[in-house]
Amino acid sequence: MTVPVIPAPVQRMVDAINDGDTEAFVAAFTPAGFVSDWGTIKAGPEGVRSWAGSDAIGATARMTVLSAETDGDTTRIRFGWRSSVFNGESDGIFVVEGDLLASFTIPPNH
Prior knowledge:
This protein has 110 residues and is α+β, with helices and mostly antiparallel strands. The chain has helices at residues 8-19, 22-27, 44-55, and strands at residues 29-37, 40-43, 62-71, 74-82, 87-97, 100-106.
């Protein structure tokens, strides 16, 4: 199996989730960065921290990148997710700004 190649800021966020490291998760984002999970937006350091606490690290999540495609500053992935909140596969869209994430979006599945 080929390991998908993703930009370093995306990898830092994935590692933070899998390591259960909230501070590293928050630090992966720009000060104005946000998580959009099915249209619910959590912005800024406290919003990102809140999402990590309720839906990711606080839910003992594990994230596995299954596929990835990067075009410019945008990376789209398919990922596996196991947590106390959700188990399954989802799509993710990351926008990178410099060495940090401007956003992580999990679009609604239709």
